Amino acid sequence: MADDKKAEKTLLGQVLALSGVHVENCYQCGKCTAGCPVAFEMEIPPQQMMRMVQLNLKDRALNANTVWVCASCETCSARCPMDVKVADVMDALRRIAIEEGVPAPAEARTMAVFHREFLGGIRRWGRLNEHELIGLYKLHTGKFMDDVGLGIRLFGKQKIRPWHFQKVKRTEDMARLFEAALSGEKDGH
Amino acid sequence: MDSPERHTQMRVAYYPGCSLEGTAIEFDQSCRAMCEALGIELVEVPDWNCCGASSAHFVNHDLAVALGARNLGLAQRTGADQVTAPCAACYARLKFSEYKLHEDPERLGQMLERGGVDYKGGLRVSSPLELLVRDYGLEALKEKLVQSLNGLKVACYYGCLLVRPTEMPSFDDPENPRSLDSLMETLGAEPVDWAYRVECCGGGLALGRADIVRKLIGDILDNAVEAGAECFVVACPLCQGNLDWRQTEAGSQRGKQYNLPVYYYTQLVGWCLGLPPQRLGIEKLLTPATTLLERKVSGLVSQVSEGV
Fold it and tell me: Which of A104, A167, A185, B259 sits most deeply, having the most CB atoms within 10 A of its CB?
């Protein structure tokens, strides 16, 4: 029991508790990195991230931009010969970073804002309203001029319809579901 | 084997998802029109909620499973034994929830109860592509076609979430999927042989990191053009949006002009079923998409297939 507690304190143990993935099985073949479409943009590529989890190099792993530029395409998980679900490990690392207050690196901050506002929208309305998400994203990142031309074209095609706002009937149910899901956060599994 | 009676009795719960009410509205229009023409009854899931997309599992797996499972519970109330989700991301998330249902049923039950729903499992989650290829059958579809794509050279782009995550049972091969190719052949098109069919377009990075998306779709576009493609066919609103909306930007970065329309497969099936383009939302695609189809139209499919 005492050993279990000690193991959970390590990054390897935390990742196992959150994702069920045994990162110790990774033998560094590099297939995840070879197939990763965004490895070119990552400060630490996927297979090195796996090694850092094995070695409990938490600060380096969480402070890299890697988890924030991961596109969640699942190619790494699909191709791992040792069945290490690399994308699930990325999810777990991201969650640890958020819960322990490790901020996303500057150029990856936009993605942290995106996910936060995306989930905020679903929590409020039960459904995503793309125009609201775009507005809040711009507000919180200051990127007001990005994609303005594109936005106008989409508006012209009536693919963005500001007058169309969607939500579930009982938004309070969604808030309660979120609360129940997030309240177990500290327990792991 | 495929009696028409059976098809008229197909009744499926329909999960449109958030994008199909917004920027991917033509995917919704064309999917509904296609199913109506084929006699597949779609019953919209009452009061459905967002599947959570990438953002939910990005930060909390329990939340991701619960969001999907609430929809499954609501879908079951329609009395249908299968729920179909056109968006590849919604499809993957709903399927994932069904797959993870029994991992911690007690905790999930608690979460769902708060969300006002009860679900114990048993629904089949499908993509309308699967519905067409596996349930309806391409032979039966062929009988309903009134026009052919007549050799249209198309790059079938599966992307990520139609075939991954691979831990779940899938209707197609994750590395070399064929369903879209078979469907396009049935419509009289010529799928090109190309390398980027299951590569990622950048998906949800579109808003936060458009620079990455431009690089990824530039590679995808180059490979498709090299293989001789005149257009793409896709099954995901994110793939469609990234390839279509950012095509000009990616082109100007590389000093090229691509002009490859990016169709949803439901639009192309609908077109060959003779449905009016307005009902399929073809004019809503940013890269001009109608002229190419009009140029390819010629006569009945039966004449074409004899020639093949």
Answer: A104
Which domains, from first to last, does chain A contain? 2-99 (1.10.1060.10), 106-187 (no CATH)
- Helical axes A130-141 vs A109-125, angle rounded to 10°: 140
- pLDDT at residue number A5: 63
Q: Which residues 181-240 on chain B approach chain A with CB closer than 8 angstroms?
A: 198-200, 202-205, 207-210, 212, 215-216
Domains of chain B: 4-128 (1.20.1050.140), 141-307 (3.40.50.11810)
HEC profile of A103-161: CCCHHHHHHHHHHHHHHHHHHHHCCCCHHHHHHHHHHHHCCCCCCHHHHHHHHHCCCCC
CA distance linking residue B244 with residue B288, whole number of Å:
10
Token pair belonging to A14:
């935390």
- Which two structure tokens, joined as six digits, stand for A89? 């490990």
What percent of chain B is predicted at pLDDT more than 90? Answer: 85
Nearest to A159 among B23, B47, B53 (CB): B23
- Nearest-angstrom CA–CA distance, B108 and B111: 5
- Put simply, whether the predicted model's pTM sits higher than 0.90 gets the answer yes
Spell out the residues 6+ positions from residue B232 whose beta carbon is closer than 8 angstroms to its own.
B154, B155, B156, B157, B224, B243, B260, B261, B262, B263
Beta strands in B129-179 (DSSP E): 153-157
Q: Which of B18, B58, B245 sits opposite A91 (nearest CB)?
A: B58
pLDDT of residue A8: 67
Would you state the pLDDT for residue A183? 85
**Which residue is associated with the tokens 């409990």?**
A56
Q: Do A72 and B203 touch (CB under 8 A)?
A: yes
